[in-house]
Specification:
heterodimer; A: 1159 residues; alpha+beta; Methylamine Dehydrogenase, Chain H; 8-stranded antiparallel sheet; 72 strands; 35% strand; globular; disordered C terminus; B: 275 residues; alpha/beta; Ubiquitin-like (UB roll); Serum Albumin, Chain A, Domain 1; 3-stranded mixed sheet; 9 helices; 32% helix
């Protein structure tokens, strides 16, 4: 969860913010201005100052806010002057916008406000649709308006070129006044509320800002988005009556309070109309006492009446913004505000403190209790630091007394234990007659008693504390952690509070805004008890560092103990014999041959330990034939086929293809690949009854496979990472022979194991830095753990496993056909596809029957029309075509008889894995310098492309701090989509228009490099991805072609031309040895065409970097691979790669020999 | 990147090379050869010496055989202490293999508990686990477990199944995060200097002020003599599982990672070698 801020204003007009991980209110820096009210979003905060002006505070982020101004210079050819700026009278302006309709000379561009600055001067865009132009950036056409081309022809009569200038928002992290530009407002504003950022993703950063003036009018701020944070102008919104206060939620909920005490609700708010269309009036909770204040979230409305009572509106959601009824809540408040996730903040009229509503969840939106946020302000802390210190030092000085206090509480709880626990212990002691040593509890119970003589007056608060803890433990209920913290710290807490506020007065709050504060019911907040928590978190947060002396000592000494006590005695007999271990179950198995069907099978995994302690195993799958139980037909005994002596457990990767729908109910199926099956690209498919069972088996099989291969712990730095189209993450340990010449290890022999988490992209390098990008574009860094997900217990590391979330959209299509009578309807031809279907049209998918991909996914939004589909849509989201299936376009033409539109619904996965989030910038691509394992580079260059297309360079990335510290923004003229950095710091990138760029002079001394060199794409192709190895540069275009950059030399790193290597390629990954791995698009398997197969380029040598042929590996549903960590040089001597599976494992001498020898 | 899980594995798979010799006084039909075995540190003598018994019975007449017991340099070895504790306490800093004398006569009733069958070991082991959980969680975790879960713990130890044991023992090692540790740390301190077999008292892993308490804090309160005085030669070694953790090691971590399967942290305080 990223760190976010809660904003508040005290009664003196000072603005403070409180971080979700913070423990004090921080006063806003540049505050000569006093504020009345603030309203926050995650990226900014708006406020009404006491001078009645509106101010905006945009939070600084690594991504600058910059806006590209552009204008076109138009010229016409005439026989006398050639091309000149003398145009025909009917022509467009000499300087115009892209359409030619607007007159736009260079000097007509003004900065919108004093918060902006120009980045540089105007310059000509030298590129045209990804291609460099001849000279001066001109593109030519027959006439205006027409199709422009790059090259000048004999009939080109007009030409134009684009001029670009960037401006940048400079007033970050400070309050910038919003000047009331063209419209002069009749009266000052009295209330303000922002929200609406969930209504639409386009344009980015769109906000709805509503304001109320003193005369009760409502105004809406137009045009606020990421590159225009100030918005453009105020628009008055017509009203039924005068408004006193307004509240706007993150979604489409807007409520306001009328002077008369009723409430009004804005209706008709949508993507196309964020202002809404009309108002509906709702009666206040009680007719006598009108409403005074309202606050809305996504699905909640809270209100205060004029007598300060708190009310919760029942039944509010996007479809029913009015809700159904009022419910009275506890507490008396003067104002209330809803944060993100419908969390509630309020200011009490009793003590003017900010309260947080605890226990608000999506199922219980009204929450449980009010809890005061009781952290000090930064000023308070500096004032009272002396007393705080003395408090702490006093605690140290009087440690004896404190110890005695705890003894009292121990005594108290001991007596309690004697009554409860004693009974359970007695029977066990009876089984050991005569054991005089089991004195345990009885002996120890009276020891604290003797010690407790010290203090004469026991501190009863401490005893209460013990009881409170006891009760909590007994109920065992997973209480809110904040609750327990405050309970456990009752005694110290009150003391500290007095101390802190004894110096300064208590803060009196006037206004709070949680719109930028992302907390939820699970958040561990540190707002409720300050000192105790900080002490704990200090001492505890230090300990997990793997490098602490005591931990190192234990690791070292255990190693030494092994050497001392075991290494010389390995030939001794083990005291405990190892036995065979078996797990059995029943499953269903998909019979690949006729009749194709699911067959009930028995499934047995037999594991046994070898004399060396290594484990082997065999997996049996069999079914009973003709109910003849004795006649067991072993339908598959893979491992005997593979390894006749069973010495190797050659189960290959287990890939999960969850939920294959069969009949009505869905099965939980998974596939098992063996090398043979990998060649066929057709796994053994098995189904079990429940997801839990499936995960049990998968975890068990995976652990067994790892055991038999001696793989345990986290993946090595050299590991190859890959991702399936389901987002599952797999990792394989490369052998030294993987890149050997001429006989590398066949790719189908590679063993893949799963790692918890859900990602779309993963990239690594050979010092163990691994980054991933989720489907929701969140950036994640690998923590060095293993397991997570369905791996429980020992298959998973204890440290370094964190909660990971991902959000993706599920799409369905609404299809319609035109008929002459009724126009477009949902009645199709009998031959047509389903009117609600998936993309292919083959499967019926309706809004009601679609389910999230697995039970771990939950819906987090409602169905909404998706306007972002490629090809564009009309205003209602439709795309038109002549017939199904066809290519769709956005405008209806005469020839179009069918149309479709895409509906999207977001679902969210919550899982665990060795990944930690890197907020806040969403990424679309990332690349890490694939340095060789030996090198001790301190800073590792890491480049990324933001979701928006910005190029970013991460600073502070080292093998110890793989997350780095901050982003450095690299300027580009257009958005980018792919980037890669080679082992020699050469950076290549692909722009959204499909052309390539090379970044000049990147070096360790100059990590951001110099400037971009444009490199045209191969003819008629748009590139989409690039990967750079040690010297090789490979790209993939949108038509699946793989290109190799010819002529790259140290003196001419841009190379000379593209050489076609292969088609049928989705993605490429080039490693630090210039090894090339791809995801092939379609590969023929034994049963079907397999989409997404890992392939390895064979025959790559220093003199032949393009290689010769492909070797096929794991496949069917693979989406991404990175080999950029594998810098293991292949052995120089070429050994036959196919290891003889019959070679006997080295045997240890048998026991009798040992004993007789020793004798 | 060493994981704390590796510590659990190392602790579990600790082995002591042992040489069993039959006591001179036993009557045998022919000379008994010594028997060499790797004993698991975390197990119990009588649980892992079936082979030893079988080996020596081959040379003895059935009528001369009484209950088997073990002795090291004159000290009868208490089977109900974990093997690792016996070794650390009696035989640290000696030459390996550990030489144990096997007796079949003159069972020292005043020193040792009888162990007629492995069910006695099981009862002892389970009672230790229950006592430890009473200290850690007021018995809530162990009482929530089913009979078969208890059996799994025992079978895990008996058959040296690390995974099987820890799949269940994991639950016994959990604690509410906000409390920072167990209620009390189950520990036993063995020392030579007093008649009491071991020290066991109530001790919390976190101080009332919220500070993490360490091994040093524990010893300071329980057995200050074990701590080296300033500027003085180290007199005592504090040994857990054959290693000497630093005194600043947090006690809670030790309890989670260096406890024996009986869930107690067994700490041996022995004389430092003089050389």
């Amino acid at each position: 969860m990223p760190v976010t801020l809660l904003w508040a204003v005290d009664v003196y007009g000072r603005v403070y913010s409180l971080s979700t991980v913070g423990q004090q209110w921080e006063q806003c820096h540049d505050t000569h201005i006093e504020f009345k009210r603030v309203t926050a979003a995650q990226q900014c905060c708006w406020g009404i100052a006491c001078d009645n002006n509106i101010y905006l505070n945009v939070h600084a982020s690594d991504l600058p806010i910059r806006y590209q101004e552009e204008t076109y210079e138009n010229q016409r050819w005439n026989p006398v002057d050639g091309f000149s700026d003398r145009l025909l009278p009917s022509d467009r302006w000499q300087w115009s916008d892209v359409t030619g309709l607007q007159h736009q000379p260079l000097d007509s561009f003004q900065l919108p406000s004093s918060s902006w600055e120009w980045e540089g001067d105007w310059y000509v865009d030298e590129n045209f649709e990804g291609e460099p132009t001849e000279k001066g950036g001109w593109s030519y056409a027959i006439d205006f308006p027409a199709t422009y081309t790059n090259d000048k022809k004999w009939k080109s009569c007009v030409r134009r070129r684009r001029w670009i200038r960037y401006r940048r928002y400079k007033a970050m992290d400070s309050w910038a006044k919003i000047t009331s530009e063209h419209t002069t407002l009749p009266d000052p504003f009295s209330d303000i509320s922002c929200g609406g950022w969930e209504i639409s993703e386009e344009p980015r950063g769109q906000l709805c800002l509503w304001a109320v003036s003193l005369q009760g009018k409502v105004w809406f701020r137009e045009g606020i988005c990421h590159h225009n944070p100030e918005g453009s102008k105020w628009e008055e919104v017509p009203l039924p009556a005068e408004v006193v206060q307004i509240s706007c939620g993150p979604g489409d909920l807007v409520w306001a309070v009328l002077w008369e005490g009723q409430l009004i609700i804005r209706e008709g708010i949508s993507r196309d109309c964020p202002r809404g269309t009309s108002w509906t009036v709702v009666d206040p909770p009680s007719p006598d006492v009108g409403a005074a204040h309202v606050a809305v979230g996504v699905n909640v409305v809270w209100a205060l009446t004029k007598d300060n009572k708190v009310w919760f509106r029942h039944g509010v959601n996007s479809h029913n913004p009015c809700g159904s009824s009022w419910i009275s809540m506890v507490g008396e408040m003067i104002m209330i505000n809803i944060g993100l996730n419908d969390q509630v903040f309020a200011i009490s009229c009793e003590d003017w403190a900010v309260y947080f509503r605890q226990g608000v969840t999506s199922s219980e939106l009204s929450g449980k209790t009010w809890k005061a946020i009781s952290v000090p302000r930064d000023r308070d802390r500096s004032n009272s630091s002396a007393s705080t210190n003395s408090q702490q030092s006093a605690g140290c000085f009087f440690c004896g007394e404190v110890g005695a206090q705890s003894a009292v509480s121990e005594m108290e709880s001991d007596t309690e234990k004697g009554s409860t626990d004693g009974t359970s212990l007695v029977p066990e002691e009876e089984t050991l007659p005569g054991d005089g040593e089991v004195i345990g509890l009885c002996a120890s119970a009276d020891i604290p008693l003797s010690q407790s003589d010290g203090p004469d007056d026991p501190k009863w608060s401490n005893v209460d504390l013990a009881e409170a803890q006891g009760q909590q433990a007994q109920t065992g209920a997973p209480q809110d952690s904040a609750d327990t913290c405050s309970l456990s710290s009752v005694a110290t807490y009150t003391l500290v509070m007095e101390d802190l506020y004894g110096v300064d007065e208590r803060p009196l709050w006037a206004w709070v805004s949680g719109g930028g504060c992302s907390v939820n019911s699970h958040s561990q907040l540190t707002w409720f008890n300050t000192l105790v928590q900080s002490v704990q978190s200090l001492s505890l947060s230090v300990s997990p560092a793997q490098t602490t002396a005591w931990r190192r000592q234990i690791f070292e000494q255990l190693g030494e103990r092994t050497r001392r006590e075991m290494d010389n005695f390995r030939h001794y007999e083990q005291a405990i014999e190892k036995s065979v271990w078996l797990k059995k179950g029943t499953m269903q198995w998909w019979r690949d041959w006729k009749p194709h069907k699911w067959i009930d099978v028995h499934f047995a995994l037999e594991q046994f330990s070898g004399p060396e302690g290594n484990k082997d195993g065999i997996l049996f799958i069999y079914y009973n034939f003709y109910e003849e139980k004795k006649h067991c037909y072993y339908c598959i005994l893979f491992f005997s086929l593979l390894c006749p002596n069973f010495s190797q457990f050659s189960l290959l990767p287990i890939t999960v293809t969850i939920l294959v729908p069969v009949l009505n109910d869905s099965k939980h199926t998974f596939g098992i690949y063996t090398p043979e099956r990998t060649k066929q690209r057709w796994p053994i498919r098995l189904a079990v009854a429940s997801e839990l069972e499936m995960h049990d088996w998968l975890a068990l099989l995976s652990v067994s496979c790892c055991d038999s291969r001696g793989i345990q712990g986290p993946p090595s730095h050299q590991a190859i990472w890959s991702i399936t189209c389901k987002g599952d993450i797999f990792v394989s340990e490369p052998s030294a022979a993987l890149e050997a010449m001429p006989y590398p290890t066949p790719s189908d022999q590679m063993f893949w194991r799963q790692v918890g988490g859900h990602l779309r992209v993963v990239e690594c390098n050979s010092v163990g830095i691994v980054w991933g990008i989720g489907y929701d574009h969140t950036a994640w860094v690998y923590t060095g753990g293993y397991g997570g997900g369905f791996f429980q217990g020992l298959a998973s590391s204890t440290d370094n496993i964190y909660t990971q979330t991902d959000v993706k959209s599920i799409y369905i299509y609404e299809n319609q056909r035109w008929n002459p009578v009724t126009g477009y309807t949902n009645r199709g031809l009998p031959t047509d596809r389903y009117m609600w279907s998936d993309a292919s049209g083959l499967h019926k998918c309706t809004k009601t029957n679609m389910r999230p991909p697995s039970p771990h996914w939950t819906w987090v939004s409602d169905w909404a029309i998706d306007y972002g589909i490629s090809g564009g849509t009309d205003r209602e989201g439709w795309q038109y075509a002549a017939d199904f299936p066809a290519s769709y376009h956005r405008h209806k033409t005469m020839k179009d008889f069918v149309r479709r539109r895409r509906w999207a619904r977001k679902c969210k996965l919550t899982t665990t894995g060795p990944w930690q989030e890197i907020p806040p910038i969403a990424l679309s691509d990332v690349t890490i310098l694939p340095c060789a394992a030996q090198s001790s580079v301190d800073m590792v260059p890491l480049w990324a492309i933001s979701n928006k297309g910005d190029v970013l360079c991460r600073l502070g990335v080292t093998s110890l701090t793989p997350a780095g510290s901050s982003w450095l923004h690299i300027g580009t003229d257009q958005p980018f989509k792919s980037i890669s950095i080679g082992a020699l710091s050469q950076v290549w990138a692909i722009a959204r228009d499909g052309s390539a760029f090379y970044r000049g002079s990147v070096s360790p001394q100059r990590p951001a490099g110099g400037c971009w060199y444009h490199i045209p794409a191969p003819a008629k192709q748009k590139l989409k991805q690039v990967s750079v190895g040690k010297t090789s540069v490979y790209t993939v275009d949108e038509n699946g072609n793989l290109w190799y950059r010819q002529g790259v030399t140290p003196s001419y790193p841009q190379g000379s031309s593209w050489e076609h290597i292969s088609n049928n390629v989705r993605k490429v990954s080039v490693g630090p040895l210039d090894q090339v791995w791809i995801i092939a698009d379609k590969v023929q398997g034994s049963h079907s065409l397999s989409c997404g197969t890992v392939c390895h380029r064979l025959g790559i040598q220093p003199m032949e970097p393009k290689g010769q042929s492909w070797d096929y590996g794991i496949g069917g549903g693979w989406d991404h691979i990175t080999v950029r960590g594998n810098s293991m040089e292949p052995p120089l001597i070429c050994l036959p790669s196919r290891r003889n599976p019959l070679a006997p494992a080295p045997q240890s001498p048998c026991n009798t020999e040992v004993n007789s020898n020793a004798a | 990147m060493a994981d704390d899980k590796d510590v659990l594995r190392d602790v579990w798979f600790g082995r002591i090379p042992t040489c069993f010799t039959l006591n001179q006084d036993e009557i045998t039909e022919r000379e008994a050869e010594p028997y060499y075995l790797l004993l698991p540190r975390v197990s119990y003598l009588t649980l892992v010496t079936d082979k030893v018994k079988k080996h020596f019975l081959k040379v003895m007449r059935p009528e001369d055989v009484e209950e088997m017991w073990f002795e090291y340099e004159g000290t009868p070895l208490k089977w109900h202490y974990p093997i690792g504790v016996l070794f650390d306490f009696h035989a640290s800093n000696t030459v390996l293999p550990w030489s144990i004398t096997v007796h079949f006569k003159n069972f020292p009733d005043h020193d040792l508990l009888h162990c007629p069958s492995s069910s006695v070991i099981e009862a002892h082991f389970m009672s230790s686990i229950k006592e430890a959980d009473a200290l850690k969680h007021k018995s809530q975790v162990i009482n929530d477990m089913q009979k078969k879960d208890h059996k799994q713990l025992w079978m895990g130890l008996q058959n040296d199944k690390f995974d099987q044991f820890w799949a269940m023992n994991r639950k016994l090692m959990e604690y509410p995060t906000e409390e920072g540790g167990f209620r009390y740390v189950p520990f036993r301190i063995y020392q030579t200097m007093s008649d009491r077999p071991f020290i066991q008292k109530l001790f919390r892993p976190v101080s009332p002020e919220g500070n993490v308490l360490t091994l040093g804090d524990l010893l300071k309160e329980m057995y200050p003599a074990a701590l080296p005085n300033q500027g003085e030669q180290k007199r005592y070694q504090v040994v857990i599982h054959g290693i000497e953790p630093l005194l600043e090691t947090p006690l809670q971590w030790l309890s989670e990672h260096l406890s024996h399967p009986d869930n107690f942290l067994h700490i041996c305080i022995i004389q430092a070698p003089t050389d």
